[in-house]
Amino acid sequence: MPKWLCNQIMRAFHKKDRRQIRLLNECWFFYYNRPQDNHNAGQL
Fold first, then answer.
1. Per the domain annotation, does 44 fall within a domain?
2. N or C, fewer C-beta in 10 Å, the chain?
3. Residue 17 resides in a domain
4. DSSP states of 1-44
């Protein structure tokens, strides 16, 4: 998980901002499920 996304999620949980938590959760799943290019292949 990118550091910026982790920081945003931590901030949303701290503020108990459910809307932001849902949005960031969707961003994470989009990021995690994106097609991998050759540079990142095998780095999971």
1. no
2. C
3. yes
4. --HHHHHHHHHHHHHT-HHHHHHHHHHHHHHHTSPP-TTTTT--
Q: Is the pTM of this model over 0.90?
A: no
> Mean pLDDT over residues 1-25, rounded?
92
First to last CA, the chain: 10
Predicted local confidence at residue 31, as pLDDT: 82
Domain containing 19: what range? 3-32
Residue range 2-28: mean pLDDT, rounded: 92
How high is the pLDDT of residue 38? 54
Q: What is the C-alpha to C-alpha distance for residues 40 and 29, in angstroms, rounded to an integer? A: 17
